Structures are given as C-alpha cells and as structure tokens.
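Marked as duplicate of an earlier ticket. Keeping the data here for the record.
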Amino acid sequence: MSFKRRGWSDTTPLLGTQQRSLSFNSSYSSSHRSAFSVEMTSSTETAIIPIPSRSVFLGVDVGTGSARAGLFDDKGKLLGSASSPIQIWKEGNCVEQSSTDIWHAICAAVKSACSLANVDGEEVKGVGFAATCSLVAVDADGSPVTVSWSGDSRRNIIVWMDHRAVKQAERINSCNSPVLQYCGGGVSPEMQPPKLLWVKENLQESWSMVFRWMDLSDWLSYRATGDDTRSLCTTVCKWTYLGHAHMQRMGEKDSRDMEACGWDDDFWEEIGLGDLVDGHHAKIGRSVAFPGHPLGSGLTPTAAKELGLAAGTPVGTSLIDAHAGGVGVMESVPDLDPENKELDKEAICHRMVLVCGTSTCHMAVSRNKLFIPGVWGPYWSAMLPEYWLTEGGQSATGALLDHIIENHVASPRLANRAASQNISLFELLNNLLKSMMQDTKSPFLAALTKDIHILPDFHGNRSPLADPKAKGVISGLTLDTSEIQLALLYLATMQGIAYGTRHIVEHCNAHGHNIDTLLACGGLSKNPLFMQEHADIIGCSIILPRESESVLLGAAILGTVAAKRYPSLNKAMKALNAAGQVIHPSTDPRVKKYHNAKYYIFRDLYEQQLSQRSSIAEALA
C-alpha cells in the first residue's frame, strides 16, 4: 500500500517560512489525514477514498500601513499569514488613502497567506474583515470619489487619524444633541460626522457625487459581497448610531438583520447634514447588523476570483480593527471553575483590552451603561452582543515611538547595528537599557529616566481628556545626541504612554468600572519592556493571548459565526480565545513609589500646558 497526499509537496511551508518534512506512515494522525485523499494501490485494483477537507477561516485586517491576512483552523490556531503594504498620503492634518489600492493589497495578502499555509481556496469556510475606522467615499457605480484637496480620484479615504475636521467637531459638540452623551460627551475629529461635514463644506462637487459613505471595514465586506449592510460596531462607535434604540425598536423581530432604526434624524439636521437622512439613510446605512451576521450570498464570483477563494463563501458583518482585537483576546483567560460558571457574565466586566498598534485602544464592557466624561461610549453591542462598550484610546503610541526614534540623530547608526545583529531596533534598545542599568548601578531599569518626563499627546489626547489640541511635552533635554540619550527617550516615551493608560483605567474605575485585569494584543504587545512598564505603572497583571495575531483572529471569528460554526460571537470567542503569558507588576516597593512620583509629574505637565495656553490666549485677545 502506498500513500500520496493530493496537492501537497513532500516539504510543506507551515506558519510563514518555517518548513517541516512530512513523512506518511501508519502513525500519522487522522486529523492531518483529513486534509488529503489516500490512494490505495495493489496489484489488482486502485481505489480513491474521498476524505473531507479541513475547515479554515480567514481574517483580514487593514491597518494604517498594511493589509494583512491570516488563516486559522477551527481551534483558533494560526496556520499562516501575510501582509501587503498600502499607500498613504499625509499633508499637514490631512491623511488619505485609496480603497482601490487597499483592495489590491488585500487580494495579494490573501493569496500569499494561502500559499504559505498551503491552504486551498475551497478549504476557507468563512471570512471576516476588520479595518481602521477610516471614511470611504464611492459613487453609484462603486468607483472612488476624491476627498482630497488635490482632486486625485484615487484618494477617496479620509484616514482615521486625519484631524482636518477639528473645527467641525467643535461646532457639532456645541449643539448638545442627546446622541453626544453616547460618545463621551462629544464627537472626536477622528469620528465620521465631523469629516462628513468638512467634505460638504469644502468639496461640494465630491459631496454631490458620493452615493455611499462607508466605514472602511464595512466597505470591504460590501466590496466582497455586494451587500452594504453596516456593522453595529462601526455605526455605533463612529457615526452616532444608537444601538440600544436599534434593539428597542425591533422588539421581538430578528435583531440580527434589520432596517436601521437607531439614527437620530434631528441630530443630522441640526449639524447641517440633513441630506444624509434621505432615502431611509441610504448613503450612510439603511441596514445595520451585529458583527458576524452573514452578508448577502457570501463572496461574489468576482471577489472570490480576485481573492483566490470560492464563490459563496460566507462573510460576516465587519468590525473596527481594534474591536476585532477585543474579540480575539477578551476571553483569553483561564477557565473558571465549573462552580463559578454563573460568574462568567460578570468576570468579563473586570477586564480591559489594550490593542496596541499605531494607536492604542482601551476597551472594557459592562452590563449597565456607564457615562464617562472624555471616554467614548457607552456603545450598545458594538463589540460583544448585549454588553455596553467603553472605549478609551491614545491617538499615537506605536506611531509616537517611531517618531521619537526616527527623528533622533543616532537612529541610523542603531538601525544599522540592529540589522547586522538580525534583531529589531526595539530589541537592540531594550538590550542597551539593560546594559546602562548595570553600568550606572541603577536600582531598577525604570529609574534610568529620573531626569526625563514625557507627555505623549503629540497627536492630541483622545482619552480621558478628550482634547485634540493637546500637545506633546519632553522635559529634561540636553545637548546629548548619543545612542544612550536615544535609549532614554525611548524608555521615557514608553513610560509616558503607560501613564496615559493608567490615567484612562483610573478614570474608568472612578466612573463605575471595576477593572483589575488587562489583556493586550497588537504589535507593541510583542515588546516585553513595553508590557512590563505598563504592568508596573498600572499595577495590574497583563495577560497576553496564546495567539499573538489577535486582530486577525477576531476577524476570522466573524467568519466562523457567518458560517454558523458557532451560534453566537460570544460562544465563538470562548471556543477560540486562549491565554498565553502573564506579565506581573514588580513587587519592589521602590518601583511603585518611583512611578507614582513620575505619574504625578505626568499629570502636572498637562495642567501646565493648560495654564500656558490660557496665558497666551489672554495675551493675544
């Protein structure tokens, strides 16, 4: 008898570029044999025994700089992933992208991921999309409509971090609409209503051409299925849609797929965007559904061909990328004792997820709605069905670290050294700081920054101050331009970011939350020093998930729900989330005392800035 694996080479790429030789014998597990056919041969006959293919789920995440695709098995294990860069235009406060470019990048990433994981398109049983909360403009044919001063038709996306609409946000917040209490008391220029108002006031031709305004993740699912049903996640978090009104109006009807009934028409009229109410809100969303709801008839033949997948593959309603990270990590904790299963619904309310990337989002859920000044929400069912979501955030974290490093004169030298050692620049800086601690006989590593204090609001303060005009501050600069000075700035920046997270956690707990456990995912969570500083500064243990690509996993979970592998998003999370490493805060009382002192300075830096701002305004009055 001989065994042959159909469509697989003898050496198969697994998990990226890692390769493993596969030998086939009687001890080879049935779970692996299920992926291929067995051909039995003898001198007299040949029989083909058909064996069902495995089930694989695809998650797609479009971040600020790249599109990524990840393939997961039905246990939540990553089989392979790939990324493709996307173009971005930055001019002052204006940051723009192209939906056409992003879709091409997604197709390239999906095909590469399938190739690396040796997954056939037919094996993918469900798809989910996640993306930044950027604003997409398309016409009646689905073609891009420019949102750029340049008039470049490719540039049809206002990126989430774009701050062109600060004045429009201020005007909207002055109207005191009831919807504002559900976004921390006021909209941010990073939300969609201010951006929409800016386009109407500055690009009238584009405004008249746009047939659909969509959040990027909703546009991706629309591009894939032809169904423009919007997600409760995007509409509630970024468009002022009232998810709880959505539920109340539905009554006993199926609340998973329905006509949108959470729009406050008076709000849109009052802010000067009453034309978006026309046609039952056709331009901003006539239908809204829970994340993971199956869309249309699945992948259209065109989209399936472009992605290298099968037509009709189920696609779930989308999530914002940070919220996909929440879905991919929120249940990554050890199982409760069977006797305490009834506490599950409350236990999840003691957790906060940090999705640490270009920016950081801080997400916690509660059974009751909590109104917290300066913190977005409460959002009904925006991430987890039947829970209220509180969403804090810092607009620049990974982006700030990159900015501090790249703009230092010593950066090129360190980058070259890191490349020669085949390690990341962050790892090199972490090693340098450890050596400095030993050389200077510092009592602990964090104390190296005793003379440097950083307020990290280089792109405004999203939470809990909700001050887009806030500026970054570096206190303690000298003429030193050495690598040592860069390492100290790097450490002080990480600490400043962690103090900002402590401020958010304390503020949320002071307004009704009881957060005592943090879970972290995203690129920065892979930096052990970044995570340890957060644990020490906040005083909470931080759980890292077993699967580090939590945003991709969260997106893939949407595909499992759409494919009806699990009856609900909550049950899919419980099945596919799993805990990994736990980072505990330092037990050294000197570390706690030191960070308390620096945290006081951190808070004072902002108070000084407010005082300075007031003095200058008075002088110029």
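See parent ticket for discussion. The longest helix spans residues 589-620.
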